[in-house]
Amino acid sequence: MQSLKGIKILLVDDEPNILQFLEMGLLNEGLEVQTAQDGMTAVTLAKEFQPHIIILDVMMPGMDGFEVCRMLKKTENVAIIMLTAKDEVDDRVKGLTLGADDYMMKPFSFEELLARIQARIRNQFPNLMGEVVIGDFRIDDRRKEILYQQRVLELSTTEYELLKFMVLNQGIVLSKAKILDKVWGYDFGGDENIVEVYIRSLRDKLNDKEHRLIRTLRGAGYRVDIS
């Protein structure tokens, strides 16, 4: 597992034992950690501490985790992993609809939490991880450079952002609308078929003639498959 030093985490849970356990473990991994036992404190701390990730319990007295998520996603650039003790699909859907980035069921292993944190950093704050290696890809966000099979790819700025987004979300089907929103921006007013043009160019540069690396799922979008 790559180093998580310098990553700031806010833990929010009304159970002191859980907070203490997670705080000790995350501090030992080199993360900067703050804790809160209620929603209002969490909102205030988030604005002051500016965490990269919030581990947020759903069931809390007063302001619950859903409301905390809703408020912070409006104003803060933060990844939110929600925790719940209830195996309820409706809760998961509600949290994700409000902007949560991931969901974990209690009880969970500390190792799984670390893996989820690393995944969120890779996806939302890749520059904090330095170089990210996924399969045959090496992404260096500081140099805006991607290597594939130890070869530097000659990419335009948009090609770089598109390939980085797809590789970081490898295994996930990405619709054209999702790609446009994340790579071109929500206010892009052009034709969504521009995605096809850039995908074609990336396949050429990756020598992906048989579309085994960047797959097309008709009617759904694209998926990067990395063995």
TrEMBL record:
<dbReference type="GO" id="GO:0000156">
    <property type="term" value="F:phosphorelay response regulator activity"/>
</dbReference>
<dbReference type="InterPro" id="IPR036388">
    <property type="entry name" value="WH-like_DNA-bd_sf"/>
</dbReference>
<dbReference type="InterPro" id="IPR011006">
    <property type="entry name" value="CheY-like_superfamily"/>
</dbReference>
<dbReference type="GO" id="GO:0005829">
    <property type="term" value="C:cytosol"/>
</dbReference>
<keyword id="KW-0902">Two-component regulatory system</keyword>
<feature type="domain" description="Response regulatory">
    <location>
        <begin position="8"/>
        <end position="121"/>
    </location>
</feature>
<keyword id="KW-0805">Transcription regulation</keyword>
<protein>
    <recommendedName>
        <fullName>Stage 0 sporulation protein A homolog</fullName>
    </recommendedName>
</protein>
<feature type="modified residue" description="4-aspartylphosphate">
    <location>
        <position position="57"/>
    </location>
</feature>
<dbReference type="InterPro" id="IPR001867">
    <property type="entry name" value="OmpR/PhoB-type_DNA-bd"/>
</dbReference>
<keyword id="KW-0597">Phosphoprotein</keyword>
<dbReference type="InterPro" id="IPR001789">
    <property type="entry name" value="Sig_transdc_resp-reg_receiver"/>
</dbReference>
<comment type="function">
    <text>May play the central regulatory role in sporulation. It may be an element of the effector pathway responsible for the activation of sporulation genes in response to nutritional stress. Spo0A may act in concert with spo0H (a sigma factor) to control the expression of some genes that are critical to the sporulation process.</text>
</comment>
<keyword id="KW-0238">DNA-binding</keyword>
<dbReference type="InterPro" id="IPR016032">
    <property type="entry name" value="Sig_transdc_resp-reg_C-effctor"/>
</dbReference>
<dbReference type="GO" id="GO:0000976">
    <property type="term" value="F:transcription cis-regulatory region binding"/>
</dbReference>
<feature type="domain" description="OmpR/PhoB-type">
    <location>
        <begin position="129"/>
        <end position="226"/>
    </location>
</feature>
<dbReference type="InterPro" id="IPR039420">
    <property type="entry name" value="WalR-like"/>
</dbReference>
<feature type="DNA-binding region" description="OmpR/PhoB-type">
    <location>
        <begin position="129"/>
        <end position="226"/>
    </location>
</feature>
<dbReference type="Pfam" id="PF00486">
    <property type="entry name" value="Trans_reg_C"/>
</dbReference>
<dbReference type="GO" id="GO:0032993">
    <property type="term" value="C:protein-DNA complex"/>
</dbReference>
<dbReference type="GO" id="GO:0006355">
    <property type="term" value="P:regulation of DNA-templated transcription"/>
</dbReference>
<dbReference type="Pfam" id="PF00072">
    <property type="entry name" value="Response_reg"/>
</dbReference>
<keyword id="KW-0804">Transcription</keyword>
